[in-house]
Amino acid sequence: MDTLRLEDTASLVMTWALPLYRRGIAKQFVEHYEFNRGDALIRRCNQVCTWYDQVILNRKNFIRYQASQWLHESNRPQQVVIPAAGATPLALELMESYEDRISRVIEIDLRGMATKRQIYREIAPQWCDKLFCLRADLTLPETLPRLVEHCGWQENEPTIILVEGISYYLMKNELGDMLRPFRSPEGSNRVLIEYLLRESCVRFDRRSIPAEVFRAVKEYAGLWLHQPYTPRELEDLLKTLGGRVEAHYFLPEMERLRTGVNAYFLENEDGWIGCAAGRL
Asked: At 54, which helix (H) or strand (E)?
C-alpha cells in the first residue's frame, strides 16, 4: 500500500483535522497517511492552546462547504484548482458528491504529488481521468503552460480556485502572481482565499495564540508562516486583478456552520483567520 508521509506541519494540521474524515472516500484516503513526524510540535501547540484543533476543523469544513455550494449552484461543469494541495483529501470529497459538475480537479504542490496520484489510482480509479496532481509552483509563470499541457486546463471553462494555507507563506505580490493566470473576462471564475488576519483585527487577549503556534512551527519546521492580511487588502488585491471580493467569512460563522453553536468564537475579533470569497 502506498503511504503519504506527512512532514511536521502537515502532521500537525491533519492530526487536528482527522475527525472530518471518518467516512466515505476521505476515510480511505487518510488511512494512507504516515504520521511519523511532528509529535513534539503537536504537543507544543497544544500547550499553547488546547482547543486549536477547532480552528483547523472549522476552516477545513468551511472550505469544503463553500466549494460544494459553488458546485451545487453551477449550471455547467467546473474546473477546480487547489494550489499547495498537500495531503488534503478535498479533491476526493468534492468528486464523491459532485462528479457530474466537475470537469477536472488539478492539485498543485512541490512535493507528494506522485504518491497522491498513486493512492488515487488505488482507491478511486473511476475518477482518475478527472484528477490531476502536478508538481509545480503556481507563482512561477512557466506553470500555466504545464496546467494546459499536463492537466488539460481550459482557459475558457469556469474555474474554482481554493487557496488554503498557502497565503500564510506568500507576500501580496506573490499571491497575486499565483491568482493572475485564472482571471476571466466576465468574472466567471470563483476564488476562495483562506488567510491569516493581521494582529489589529484580532482581540488583544487572543493575539498570543496564533503568534505562539506559528513561532513553534518556525522552530520545529524552519518555516515562517506569519504573512497576515486585512479583509481590505484582499479586496484591493482582487481588484488589481480585475476581480472582486463578494463576501468575507470569519471563525464565528465557520464554527456555527460546523457545530451549530458558538463555543469558542463569539465575535469576528475572537478569531485570527478569514476566508475571502470572490470572482476573478
From this structure: helix 53-73
